[in-house]
Automatic annotation (TrEMBL):
Protein name: Knr4/Smi1-like domain-containing protein
Pfam families recorded: SMI1_KNR4 (PF09346), WHH (PF14414)
Limits of the Knr4/Smi1-like domain: 169-306
Species assigned in the record: Actinocatenispora thailandica
SMART domains given in the database record: SMI1_KNR4 (SM00860)
Domain of life: Bacteria
Gene3D superfamilies: SMI1/KNR4-like (3.40.1580.10)
SUPFAM superfamilies linked: SMI1/KNR4-like
InterPro entries: Knr4/Smi1-like_dom, Knr4/Smi1-like_sf, WHH_dom_containing
Length: 345
């Protein structure tokens, strides 16, 4: 798929040497996941283009074209509004996976919106494949205000907490078995969350005032319907970003949430950005955990209490982009070609 780049965007990409981006050493080659279950599901692998970025189009159930970022929005706000607008378009297109549980639609469960490098396009791809390796993308290459981070919340929004929907309760014995498998004692607040909800999800999409992710998926749990929702299974293939001091506990639109399980500050909650322009292929998990994770809670209860409903000014940006036709679904003939038949659009 060809992508037209304006000079500013092209300069933004080329100003960082190609070898700096994760997996850029595979430029022009196919990346094959190390996980055998993923290789069986997606045998074609992921093509890493000549710039060193994954080509997600063959795994895209849908592709959305967004307009240039509105003036005044910072990078985290652009990231949030892009995803929300994409979900609105998916719902308007009557995609069977699209779901609205309230005023703001969720991303389909098990999927993630990937920003495509050097463009304003997003592709809806399986989160299990997308999250299985580190890579750069369209947030890392986006020319946007980066001097300010986080989301500006209007007065009064501090009380708009995000309700939690539990999936089911989990027994002490089941949690203990997982702890033995992981060789770790789950910190108290997070342990209580797992026992009470088995990886619950927000009734309405939630955002964090200091970061650009959206919480709209169930967290990992125990004895779930898919291996890729299993707490113990997922943590077998995230060692490229997390040391044994951290446990990946759930996906978000924009990365993963992890809990520190060893050492000082045990129980604290951290955000890993999956499209971080500061990440580089030469970095290992030790460096990432020491320099690129973002602390977002003293414990899991504190983390959840810090989440807020999407602020109205950002919803206004989303409505404007969708209602005025500035954000649109794109008909790409190659979209979804490598998806299993059941996942194809």
């Amino acid at each position: 798929m060809s992508i037209d780049l304006d000079p500013g965007t092209l300069w933004g990409i080329m100003s960082q040497p190609r070898e700096e981006f994760p997996v850029s050493s595979l430029a022009g080659q196919m990346f094959q996941p190390t996980n055998p279950e993923l290789r069986a599901l997606y045998p074609d692998g992921v093509y890493i283009d000549l710039r060193g970025f994954p080509d997600w189009i063959p795994y895209a159930r849908a592709v959305v074209e967004m307009p240039p970022p509105p003036p005044g929005l910072a990078v985290d706000e652009v990231r949030v509004t892009d995803v929300l607008a994409a979900n609105e378009l998916l719902l308007l297109a009557a995609d069977p996976l699209a779901e609205r549980r309230g005023p703001v639609p969720h991303t389909p469960e098990g999927w993630v919106w990937a920003h495509l490098a050097g463009s304003r396009r997003l592709a809806l791809v399986p989160s299990s494949l997308h999250d299985s390796f580190r890579h750069g993308g369209g947030v890392a290459t986006l020319e946007v205000n980066r001097h300010r981070t986080g989301l500006e919340l209007p007065t009064g929004s501090a009380d708009e907490y995000v309700p939690l929907v539990p999936l089911q309760e989990v027994s002490e014995a089941a949690v203990h078995k997982v702890e033995e498998h992981l060789n770790v004692r789950l910190p108290g607040s997070y342990r209580g969350f797992v026992m009470a909800t088995n990886g619950g999800f927000p009734r309405h999409p939630g955002v964090h005032p200091e970061h650009g992710f959206i919480v709209d998926q169930p967290f990992f749990g125990i004895a779930r319907n898919s291996w890729f929702e299993e707490l113990s299974f997922v943590n077998m293939w995230v060692s490229d970003r997390f040391t044994h001091d951290f446990l990946a506990v759930g996906p978000v639109q924009g990365g993963m949430i992890a809990v520190k399980v060893h050492g000082d500050d045990s129980g604290s909650v951290w955000y890993w950005d999956d499209d971080d322009r500061n990440d580089a292929e030469r970095y290992d998990a030790e460096y990432i955990c020491g320099h690129l994770l973002h602390r977002c809670g003293d414990d899991f209860e504190d983390f959840w209490a810090s989440l807020r409903l999407v602020p109205e000014p950002l919803l206004g940006v989303v409505r404007s982009a969708v209602d005025n036709g500035h954000a649109q679904l794109v008909d790409d003939p190659d979209a979804g070609a490598s998806l299993p038949p059941a996942e194809q659009p």
